[in-house]
Amino acid sequence: MSEQISHQSRLAPTGPGRSSAMPSGPYESVAVKHSEQGALTVPFTGEDGRTKEYDFTRLPLPRMHRDLAIAFAARTGPTGTLRTKSSASSAYLGIRRLLVFLESLHTRPTTLGELTPRHLERYRLERLKTVKVGPVAIELTLLRMVLASVTPDTELSPQLREFLQQPGHQRNGAKAVGRPGYSDREFRALVTAARSDVVGIRERIRVGEDLLQTFRNAPEDLSPEDRTLAAHLDEMDQTGHIPDVTWTTRLTQRVQHRFARVALARHLYLTQDDLAPLLLLGVALTGRNSETIKELPSQHRVLEGRAVAVALTKRRRGKSQSRESVHWEIGTSESRQLHTPGGFYLLLHDLMRRGRRLSGDTRVWSIWAGIAGRPAYDPAGQSRHSSLGHIDPYALALTRDLKLGRWGAAHGLTDDDGNPLEINLNRLKTTVEVRRTRAVGGHLPSASRTNTMDVSFIHYLQGDPRIRDWADQVLTTAINEAEANARAFRPRILVATSEAALNSSPETMADDLGISPELLRRVIQGELDTLASACLAIHRSPFTDADVCNVSFLTCLRCPNALITEHHLPALLSVRDLLQTARDTLPLDDWVEEHGRTWLALAQLILPKFSEAQQAKAATKKPVSLHLSFLSGPQEPR
Predict the structure, then answer these.
(1) Burial letters for 195-215: b for 16+ Cβ neighbours within 10 Å, e otherwise?
(2) Triad 18, 19, 21: Cα angle to 5°
(3) In terms of Cα–Cα distance, which of 198, 187, 189 is closest to 334?
(4) What b/e sequence results for 576-588 when a residue is b if at least 16 CB atoms lie within 10 Å of its CB, and e otherwise?
(5) CB–CB of 69/42 below 8 Å?
């Protein structure tokens, strides 16, 4: 597939020393329109190219219309924050519902100056009777955004202005926690079914193209039936028109006509039923949410036959972050085409290239939807008629019903409990996030490729029981390994009988301890003593990179460089008493965190090596005073 670039909508290039392209003519802000019939409308053109005109004339409480329309235009205009058709429509519907509610009150406000925070609170409580907390919180947020844009703000009451400036309004909303994803078995079954359907779509279009090519090059090689079908395909390819055909069935003539045209169109074009598997596989391969897949552009660049560069639209990221350029792997063979995001995108682009000639080439999507069932005055219906039934399925809105439940039932997909599997695009996206997070060992900066770390955790990972179980297993394994390592450590201890043997066989004793005879002599003479042990390598500490070890003396009791002899026993007993005193005074969690490992080494690994007689003798020689400050590390003057 060759490189495809549309030059009509490409941004002008910029660079050092090159001035940015400027629009021609004076700037004109988006204004509120007043028609001769007195209509008050706000035109809208979003960042995604979708347009709409919002009519305030038909709303209740007409004395509020002008101020609300101007504020709405500011919020949805080029410098506003509501820059998609869906967000602008949500704000407009919120305004309409609020005005309808205010009109129903016995004592209703007639101007914005009479509107109070109490009115908004009563509206919120009324909405909560029929709508969940989350959607109501979002609706109130949009309303506050519009009211905060009213100019001048003196049109609002002082109480309402103060209320709008207060922080923490969204605390009344429900905590956003994403839905759990699919299990590994459910995910594999779902993706396998979607991939199988896409393979079928690809082969169906290729068979139609091969038949068309044979008809144009060697029609005599075709049977009469195939030649008739190919003639229809030739007309469809050249004009986009799906001819009227009738198949013999037991259905009514009208239904025969409809199904016959759909079946004929499916030889060269995609239809509504093809959208579900394509969208599911797109989310699974790219890890992007369904809205981003629906907004895939037709523009792209193929890079050295190995990757494809695509500019994605990212909703809910704000105006400055609504675009992102990605490079997707294509794959080295056709067998990998449906296993890589780049290969999938190029297949999608190729399958719909005919339809885009009529439906438009802004986005990659195009299906044949027919022209029946839409009145002529409906703009969508007019668009269908002018494009001979070829449409961008997501041109008007992204909320097209894909009948995912029916698709899953047709494939016999079940969950782990044997019930019909719920097919949900958000759950599929969550599953991809979970699998990627597990693959990188839980490192969120590496796993968060399509969202920020906070969004990935809150909306996709936090609510998934499988990621929690996996994280619990990782933490449990780490704790067990740390405990095992601590218990596996065996300090080097020289008991009295060994000291007696030193006179007869110092080389053998030094070899058993893994040190030289000279180093052993210095230990016995106390030349290498610290507080409660001898240090064999004070310049090679495993706990610090400093030239000389500067960690706590308590660390010596679990250090491989330490060697303990009987003459260290009095100080060790004092350390034990000091740790016991600290246990009686500190909170248990703090004591365990600070002294737990030292206590374990001292009580279970060191003191049991000495007999009760040795410990009793050493107890009479314990230091009079030993403070924790002495154990925190060397205290040389600086």
Answers:
(1) bebbeebbebbeebeebbebb
(2) 125
(3) 198
(4) bebbeeeeeeeee
(5) yes
Tokens found for residue 537: 């390598």
Total residues belonging to the chain? 638
- The answer to whether the beta carbons of residues 205 and 268 sit under 8 Å apart is yes
Helical H runs in 31-79?
65-76
Residue 170: alpha-carbon gap to chain centroid:
22
Would you state the pLDDT for residue 173? 47
Q: By the 8 A CB rule, do 262 and 370 touch?
A: yes
| Separation between Cα atoms, residue 159 and residue 147, nearest integer Å | 13
Q: DSSP code of 411?
A: T
d(Cα 16, Cα 474) in Å, to the nearest integer? Answer: 50
Q: What is the pLDDT of residues 399-442, one digit of tens each?
A: 888 899 999 999 999 999 899 999 999 889 888 887 777 766 65
Tokens of 468: 């929690």
Please give the helix or strand (H or E) that residue 217 lies within, else none: helix 184-217
Q: Is it the case that residue 388 has pLDDT exceeding 70?
A: yes
In terms of phi and psi (left: phi > 0; alpha: psi -120 to 50; beta: otherwise), the region of 618 is alpha
Torsion of CA 11, 13, 14, 17, to 10 degrees: -150
498: Cβ contacts below 8 Å, ≥ 6 apart: 509
283-318 tens-digit pLDDT? 999 988 888 899 899 999 999 888 999 988 776 555
Report the sign of the C-alpha dihedral through residues 456, 462, 466, 470, in that order: positive
Indicate the pTM of the whole model.
0.60
- Could you tell me which of 449, 459, 451, 313 has the C-alpha nearest to residue 394? 313
CA dihedral angle for residue 164, residue 166, residue 171, residue 173, rounded to 10 degrees: 0
Query: Tell me: the pLDDT tens digits for 331-370?
Result: 877 777 889 999 999 999 999 999 998 888 788 999 998 7
C-alpha pair distances (Å), 405 with each of 181, 208, 408, 412: 16, 29, 5, 11
Tokens representing 168?
């923490």
**DSSP 8-class letter at 581:** H
Residue 55 near residue 41 (C-beta atoms within 8 A): yes
In terms of Cα–Cα distance, which of 104, 102, 126, 121 is closest to 112? Answer: 102
CA distance 436 to 421: 22
Phi-psi region of 259 (alpha: psi -120 to 50; beta: other; left: phi over 0): alpha
- What is the full DSSP assignment across 351-377? HTHHHHHHH-SSBS--EE--STT--TT
Cβ atoms of 63 and 111 within 8 Å: the answer is: yes
What element of type H or E holds 508?
helix 506-513
Among residues 559, 173, 158, the alpha carbon closest in space to that of 550 is found at 559
Cβ contact 355:270 at 8 Å: yes
Q: In 3D, which of 294, 301, 349, 358 has the Cα closest to residue 325?
A: 301
Contact 151, 74 (CB under 8 A): yes
| 136 membership: H or E segment, kind and range | helix 133-148
How far apart, in Å, are the Cα atoms of 505 and each of 51, 103, 463, 475, 523?
A: 95, 104, 66, 48, 16
Token pair of 281 as six digits? 């596989």
Q: Which residue has the tokens 């009208």?
A: 254
